[in-house]
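During the no-cost extension, the postdoctoral fellow (Dr. R.K.) reprocessed legacy sequence entries with the updated structure-token encoder. One reprocessed record is reproduced below for audit purposes.
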Amino acid sequence: MTVPGRRSSTFTRLLRHGFTDPSAAERLLDSVELMPVRDDPVLLDALGATADPDLALLGLVRLLEAQPGPTARRELLDTLIAAKPLRDRLLGVLGASAALADHLARHPRDWEALVTYEPRDLHPGVEEFERGLAEATDPVSLRVAYRRCLLSIAARDVCGTTDLAETAAELADLATATLRAALAIARAAAPEDAALCRLAVIAMGKCGGHELNYVSDVDVIFVGEAVDGADEGKALRSATKLASHMMRICSETTVEGSIWPVDANLRPEGRNGPLVRTLSSHLAYYQRWAKTWEFQALLKARPVAGDIELGEEYVAALEPLVWKAAERENFVADVQKMRRRVVENIPAAEIDRELKLGPGGLRDVEFAVQLLQLVHGRADAALRSGTTLDALQALAAGGYVGRADAVQLDEAYRFLRSMEHRIQLYRLRRTHLVPEDEADQRRIGRSLGLRVDPVAELNREWRRHAAVVRRLHEKLFYRPLLDAVAQLAPGETRLSPEAARERLVALGYGDPAAALRHLEALASGVTRKAAIQRTLLPVLLGWFADSADPDAGLLNFRKVSDALGKTPWYLRLLRDEGAAAENLARVLSAGRLAPDLLMRAPEAVALLGDGDGGGLESRERAHLEQEILAAVGRAENAQQAVTAARGVRRRELFRTAAADIVGSYGTETQPAEADQGALVDLVGGAVSDLTAATLAGTLRAVVRDGWGDTLPTRFAVIGMGRFGGHELGYGSDADVIFVHEPWEGVPEHEASQAANRVVSEMRRLLQIPSADPPLLIDADLRPEGKSGPLVRTLKSYEAYYRRWSLVWESQALLRAEPVAGDEELGRSFIELIDPLRYPAEGLGDDAIREIRRLKARMESERLPRGADPKLHTKLGPGGLSDVEWTVQLLQLQHGWCEPGLRTTRTRQALAAAAAAGLISAEDASILDEAWVLATRVRNAVMLVRGRAGDTFPSGGRELAAVGRYLGYGDGHVGDMLDAYRRTARRARAVVEVLFYGA
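Re-encoded structure tokens follow.
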């Protein structure tokens, strides 16, 4: 009798044996079916050894209830207690698979399939499974026989009799036997069709690779031929009927469920192509039309059913093409696409639970191994295995992969596949998601031998192995290259020079010989520096290969390393700060501008770190100006002062370019910036603030050198054009006008002379040839243009604008904003020009006609000869000029009454016009998109080529680099150009209505 309030001893024992619901377990143990054995310790110990004791006990009671009578029930119980092999197998299955427990409840005598325990039963093959399916004559009986065979595979698996590879091979052998049985049923149903054709079933994917899951699509390709004397067309129609019927037999749901879907979409042309082709038709397709991924899929092709001789002919005919795939023109681009395997189609909520497709998932290992097989299998037949683990072992044995790395990846792959098997086994459902429910995770963990804290241990092991896989490109692709050139461990098998060159070419390097020289220079030797480089380079090489110009990335890295190699913090920064190494790799391989800026002062690499003092966030103008003015104050003369200011400008240009590149490319931890407008605003604002601060410092230096503390006249610099609009690009000149106002008592001619000397000296100092990029000052937007004086007084500007101002000058003044010098004078200038740029009651008809005439003339006269207008970002249809002139016309017409339009910034004015109802939100969005895209293209051209340009580059690598910056992967340059034309065309249609009044 149990004392009230105290647990029974059975309850406590059940808890100790791993039951999570001891009360329910007690009730089940007290059931009539288990009465004869309920107190037998053997039973409780066996249940406690299962993955889920509660599930195993429930399944056992259901199985006993389903027995046809007391004799059968007693026979099961006696065998269960007496025979340990059966006990372990049966309870192991019941504790791991609710679906197989359901099967046993429906077919209560199938437990007898687990009694046999002879050597041949330990590792059955196709022949044994064919015998197990031999009595199946229809889809329903085939399903029952299939589940019975599956029961024995699962039993060996959960008991540890077979390992992961053996279980996967048995599942593939069972699938082979099932396909043969299904085809036999289909042939028996249509003997006339069977008589007309030869039909071979080629297994692909995991079935072909002899590494199938418990529940997976079985990928196949069908090959058909006419028998002697038969019409080929009729024979193919018959073969198609047989193939379709065979697929339905396996895939359709019956009272016994389905087996698995048979998927023939890997065939030529996919689901749009014929289900069955002749061998010659297959061959013709692969010779002419097949893509790289289709040859990759053929690595696992294996004849399994139907006419095996025809299937072997198919494999023999296509095998030479598979091993020539790496010689294809587009192989590198296809490889890089495969390496950047997209996961966008995985719902965001599931990506962290994806065992197969997520980062560090099974597909990463499989794709990587297949890629190395394609690259090196041409010359080494030992690599030509369809099984992932066998291929990985062969790659290690041949020196193509480091042995230690291969062992780690083998362990990770086995663990992740075992997790996948246990997840699928529970309900026999096709899934690759790790369940969120703790009870499910507990069952999976216990099934894998994790018994102390199954949930925590499972998650820890899963994350550890996934982390190993996430670094697999470093381990598989790049580390062997370092081993090949470093020559540190004598006697170890390593890549031959030819294999290393093949590897580099496959990864996108255009000059593999030079790349190997760089690697040797960086990684050879026994110094601490070389050791750190050998740790860093495998990762960096992968990031370089992810760019449009890996060779440039590696060369630039060598240059930076040569310059900073003896600096103690450099390699430590790259090794220890997570972001620095990847940011550097992106910057060095994205084009010429950023590396050129960095090479002039390599210590700026510190900005790429994520620690104190680093970071790529743009600095505020006040902080920049403060730093530059302090540097100017320390200098001995104006030239030294401006040199210091230009040095700050170079460093900050690098910071901005690096932030732009990293934001555009994204990193492993931070996706690319989705808001393209934000990147444009980042660059425009940062470069404009930097230019203003540089001019302020230069002005201070020139005044101090020539006049001491005070210039004889107040002096201000007014930013114009893109400078005034905070929209400067990397290669933009600084459009300005200068204004001065003599101090009281200073003769005007003396003040004017001083102001002109200031302008002349500023321009000279900012253009002196040096390691720093020049800053060109363009004052052509001043009154009278190049013919007018460089500097005017406020009164002179007032007199000119009152008497001579033209409408284009009012338009140019829309972008005017003080950027340096006397702030009060700058404000006075703005007060002077506001009535001009925001005229009361807007523009008259004559002025509007004049603006339209000027725009039309500019389009016809200023476009460079030979340029494609549709791809010219500045003057082409839908380009910057179209959008800006349209916005500026709206400002001139409505700025007097709409305060929001009184801004120098194009995007702000466009948004204000939409908010005021002057244009529709849709039109505003179209114009904004076009302006942002055109600006991004110009920034990209400058980053890639190192010099400004308004059109897309003509060179293939440069064009691809622009594409990568804009978010287009390899092989999608055409898509990029089409997208630009489409965006510009839509913008031009809006401009025709809003600007030209069409």
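Confidence is low (pLDDT under 50) at residues 1-6. DSSP finds 45 helices and ten strands in the chain. The remaining legacy entries will be reprocessed before the final report is submitted.
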